User: Fold this.
Amino acid sequence: MKSNQRIRVGILFGGPSAEHDVSCSSALAVVRALPRDRYEPVVIGITRDGNFTLVPGDVIDRLRHQPAGARAIDDRLEVVGQDVELRSRRPAPQAAVTPAGAAGDVLAVLDVVFPLLHGPFGEDGVIQGFLETLGVPYAGCGILAGAVGMDKVAMKRAFVAEGIPVTPYVWFDEGRWRSSPDRLGLVQDLRRPLFVKPANMGSSIGISRVTSDYELIDAVEEALRYDPVVLVEQGVTAREIECGVLGGSEPAASAVGEVTVTGGWFDYQQKYFGDDDPMIVPADLPEHVTKEVRDLSVRAFRAVGGWGLARVDFLYEENADRLYVNELNTMPGFTAHSMYPKVWAASGIAYPDLVARLIGLAFDRHARSQRRPVGQAAL
Assistant:
């Protein structure tokens, strides 16, 4: 590619997960933020049944110039356009966009991919593995970090192994739940309230707050709608704190934000359908707590093998002056209303610069991977 040519960025969005609409909102925000003198967006939607579509340029231009909506969930791309496939252009580190079933025609070439997909299929290492087979650079975490970060049980294990504080929890799969003669006994060591979650899901989808025994069965059944493994956490009376991580081999932590919560926890309705902004940046915390949040964020990022970006969510038990890492998101919400861009804006990195840095980190990781020996080992 010539030095004066714009970098062609494949924006992947949508997907079959329950977070499809959130992904569509994140993608539109990034498309609007891409500096057009340096980057050319190629916008590829993934339908709910997994088909790839090339969104027409006139649709992108129309949406790009519309003012952002008051609520991010109402302001999003739609998965429309021609059915396409992605194909490798090896040995070039690029991917070709071709009509579905027609390998000869090339509709676009991608120099790098920004997979703005949330939840299973997009954030869990699946799409990252596909992009690895294509040999094209991509923004964000790799296969391992995506898989561990998506699976809340594996993530807890990684944190515990690295001495990172987490709330007490148990987990079980659907088979154990169905066959157990004493379902309440599965959570007998945890104090109420409980938070019942599908192991693999985000955006607070499938999560229930349980305060009594009779609520537990319905909560577990709701979680099992989204994943065959259920995580049950002991609730704590705490403030919800969030911090962003950005970087590669030397990741940095952002300013610290807080989410104001009603009803005991930050659910899907509050995240995406509330009319008021629930996010406070910077959070009003003692200096030592802010420092610990930032330190633990980088440690959590490294514990899962992160690269590029993550948002780390904390519970701060103020009376006990105690922090717990609740979870790490390897592709957090990226809308103009989302916490991740806000904490980095408060740290001096504006949204367009944040996107540009993540694209640069994608090329950095790809270059590092090309230095590793491949093929048959010497005998």
Observations:
- The mean pLDDT is 90.
- The CA atoms of residues 12 and 115 lie 5 Å apart.
- The chain has three domains: 7-139, 168-234, 239-330.
